[in-house]
Amino acid sequence: MPINKSAYRRYKVIDACLTNSMRRHPNMEDLQQACWEKLDIWPAIDTIQKDIKNMKLPHPDGFDAPIKYCRRNNGYEYKDSTFSIHKTGLNAKDIDSIKESIDLIQSIGSSRVGQSFSHAMEKVLSTYKESFPSGDTKRKIIQTDGTRSSQGFEHFDLLFTACKDRTPVSFVHFSYKKRTFNAVTVHPTLLKEFDNRWYVVGHSEHHNSIRTFGLDRIYDPVLLRKEFIKAGAAKYNSYFKDVYGVYPIKNEAKQEIIIECSALVTNYFQAYPIHESQKIVKNERGDSEIHFELIPSMELIRLFRSYANQLRVKAPLWMYDHIIKTNL
Amino acid sequence: MSAKKQTPLLYQLPKVETRTNDKHLQLLRIHCDENHTKIDLGYTATSYFISGGWINIGADTFIELKETGEKLLMTKAENIPIAPEQLHFESTKEWRYFSLYFPAVPEGKCTINLIEATNATENDFNFYGIQLNPEKAEKSRKT
Hints:
The complex is a heterodimer of chains A (328) and B (143). Chain A is 37% helix and 22% strand. Chain A has 328 residues and is of the alpha+beta class. Chain A has four domains: 5-78; 92-127; 153-241, SH3 type barrels; 255-327, 2-Layer Sandwich (Alpha-Beta Plaits), CATH 3.30.70. In chain A, strand 5 and strand 6 (209-214) form a beta hairpin. Chain B is an all-beta fold and 143 residues long. Chain B has a single domain, classed as Immunoglobulin-like, CATH 2.60.40. Chain B has strands at 9-12, 18-19, 25-32, 36-44, 54-55, 62-65, 71-73, 76-78, 87-88, 95-103, 110-115, 127-132, 138-139. The model of chain B has no long low-confidence stretch (mean pLDDT 92). The A-B interface holds A 167, 170, 172, 174, 179-185, 219-220, 222-226 and B 7, 10, 12-13, 26, 28-29, 31, 40, 42, 44, 93, 95, 97, 99, 138-143.
C-alpha cells in the first residue's frame, strides 16, 4: 500500500524526534507538539500510534523502523540508534539489484550517462558501506556492442544539455558522402543511438527541415543565444516512430513494405522484430512474406541487402530496383 | 570601472571576396570575443598529391584589418601543425578540421584578410575580404 503524503510528512517529523540526540526518548505529547510546530497540525494520539505501527512495518509497506517504547525513560526510541528512515532502507537484495543495474548500464551505455549514474549510486551505496563494483575486479558477464571511444562522443554532454534546455547549437559537419564541410545551426531535440552509433536529431536552419547528424561527423559544437525553433510534435513523432534507423529517404512517405524471406531469415525477423508494424505471414515451408508500415530508410535497405539472396523486396518496386542495381 | 563585456559572436560561412586554394580548403566559422578571434577551417585531401599530400600552417600567419591595415599575428593553431612541421595524410580521401587563433578584432562591422603567405601560391591558405557584420552573426555562449 502506498504511503500517503500527509502520513509521510508525519513520519519524517517522528523520525526527526527519534534521531534527535539532544532530546532523547520523546513521549506521545512531544511527538504531537513536534507535528504542531513543523506541520501546523495537532494529530490525535491514535494517529501517532498508527504512524508508529506503520513505520515499523517491513518494506515496502513501511520502513522496518525498530521503534520501541522505553519504560525507563517514558518515551520512544530506535533500538538501533543509527537508524533513520532517510537512510533509504536498502536491503541486501536492493543493493544487489542496484549493483547489477550499474553493471548493465555501464555495459550497454558505456557512456558518461553510465558514469554519472554510477557515481550517484556510489553515494547511495556508500551509506551502506558497500564496496562499489569495479569493472576491473569483477568478472564480466555481459558483453554488448558498446564501443568505448567513438569519435565525436566527447560532444555528448553538450548536445544532451542543448536538447534538454532547448538551446540551438552551431557545429561544423563533415559529409562522408559529399566529402565537404558545412557549418550549420541546429535546434536539437533528441540524441539517438542506433546500431552502436550516436546521432543528434533536430531542426536544421540550413536545410529548413528535421535532420540527423552523426556525432562522429560533428566538430566543435557551440551553444547559441537565440530562440529555439520547435518543429511540430507530429512531424517528430512520425520521424521517430515510423523510421527504422536514422536516415529516412528524402521525400518518401510512410508506406507498405513487403519482403519475401527464406525460412532461415524468417527465424531472425521472428526472433528480433525490427518494428512494431511487422507482420509475418508464413507458408508451410517456413519461408514467409513480411509486411511493414514504414518510412523507407537507408538502414532498412542496408538490412535487407545484408541477407543477400535469402531476402527479396516485393514492394515497393523502386526499392527492389534500387537493391538490384546497387548489388551489381 | 570595468569595460563592458563583448558578446561572443559567431560568423557561419562568412562571405569572402577572393581566396587561394579554392578547391580543398573551406572557411567555416569565425568566433569573435573580447579575448580572441578563432577561425575554423576544413581541408579535404586530394588525389592531386600522392597519398593526399600534407598540410601545415605558416608560423607568420596573420589577419589584416582591411580598414586600418593593422596586422594581428596568429597566437595558436589547433589540430594543424605549425610549419615546418607537417601533417601527412595517409590517403587521398582524408580530411582535417582545424582552428587558428588571433587577437581580438575590434567590435563592429569590419573586413579582414587571412594571410598565410604574402606572396601566395595556390597552395597557401589565404582569404581576402572576409566580411564581419555583427548584424549577421549569431550570438554564442562560448568561443
